[in-house]
Amino acid sequence: MITCSAPAKVYLFGEHAVVYNESAICCAISIRTRVNIEYSENIVINSSLGTTGIDYEIHPYVSAVVEKIRKKSPYRGVSISIESDIPVGSGLGSSAAVVVATICAFNNLLKLGMDKESIASLGHSIEKEIQGSASAADTYVSTMGGTISIPMRQHLKNPRCNLVIGNTNVFSSTGQLVAKVASLKTIYPEVITPILSTIGKASLRGESLLENEDYRALGELMDVNQGLLEAIGVSCNELSRLIHSSRAAGALGAKITGAGGGGCMVALVGNENIDAISRAIKNAGGVPIVTGVTDSGVRVDFDNE
Ligand SMILES: Nc1ncnc2c1ncn2[C@@H]1O[C@H](COP(=O)(O)OP(=O)(O)O)[C@@H](O)[C@H]1O
Ligand SMILES: C[C@@](O)(CCOP(=O)(O)O)CC(=O)O
Ligand SMILES: [Mg+2]
């Protein structure tokens, strides 16, 4: 049996815009998905979503990994069992974490010799295939850990601040939200393209603010980024309520993380305000998760093969 795990992520800047090659800043966070794998007679995939074989309805991402790896290196069967602390369909990159941890598990079981760059790259091609179109951000950050600017794939300083996430518990599908932005961009290219490019500029400015540890300005620009996400139609009442409540309770900045339309927001928070902001999120109907950045990307947790 082999167990590999990979982290969730939040976007400080740049979701959606990054799909169009604009800049983004992502942080890997200390919430993980673990994938156990062992040889078996046939293919079994077990998770909180159900127990299946190759099944693109229930387990599209894991099924795609199983089939892609089989083409690279044929094997008879495996049993895959997934345990995850990452809420599914909520903007924290559960799809990327499960893809990357599953590839890593195969890499060790079948001794494929893939390095982290090739794990991230195969992960990205699978996100693209299942999601329709996808940036490299989620799979790259989940593979490498830390704070990373995309598309340059540069490691940045981790923010020395807390991240308080608020989950609306409203499920959203990344593929659908990405398609919604694509459709707006096709209908109103002269309006939507500059918004996406302004998000990219906020992210680039965010890189130097992070370097200088100017968290007040970083938070202010995260709020600007949120305004632009509202403009492209990826927020919702529940998210806006959590975002405004955490700002009122003293967050340095607060915005959606990930695809939006439900799922999670993230607030940048100084030490003194963690409790007040968690309470504000709860009172506004959300579930708070206090977390921080992890440098630990995908890793092998257990291997007795
Ligand atoms: N623990 C898990 N086990 C199996 N599949 C998972 C798991 N977590 C996520 N997935 C897959 O990822 C999909 C959600 O991905 P997505 O819509 O991109 O949302 P997000 O990545 O923001 O959580 C799920 O519908 C499922 O196919
Ligand atoms: C909206 C997007 O920028 C991020 C999606 O993140 P998540 O799947 O909602 O965690 C899409 C992408 O980068 O592929
Ligand atoms: Mg996803």
From TrEMBL:
One GO MF term attached to the UniProt entry: ATP binding
Q: What is its main location?
A: cytoplasm
Provide the active-site residues from the annotation.
138
Q: Where is the GHMP kinase N-terminal domain positioned along the sequence?
A: 61-146
Pathway annotation from the record: Isoprenoid biosynthesis; isopentenyl diphosphate biosynthesis via mevalonate pathway; isopentenyl diphosphate from (R)-mevalonate: step 1/3
- Annotated ATP binding sites: 87-97
Enumerate the UniProt keywords alphabetically: ATP-binding, Cytoplasm, Isoprene biosynthesis, Kinase, Lipid biosynthesis, Lipid metabolism, Magnesium, Nucleotide-binding, Transferase
Naming one, the record's GO cellular component terms include: cytosol
The EC number on file is 2.7.1.36
What is this protein's function?
A: Catalyzes the phosphorylation of (R)-mevalonate (MVA) to (R)-mevalonate 5-phosphate (MVAP). Functions in the mevalonate (MVA) pathway leading to isopentenyl diphosphate (IPP), a key precursor for the biosynthesis of isoprenoid compounds such as archaeal membrane lipids.
Self-association state and partner proteins as the record states: Homodimer.
The name this protein carries in UniProt is Mevalonate kinase
Protein source organism: Methanohalophilus mahii (strain ATCC 35705 / DSM 5219 / SLP)
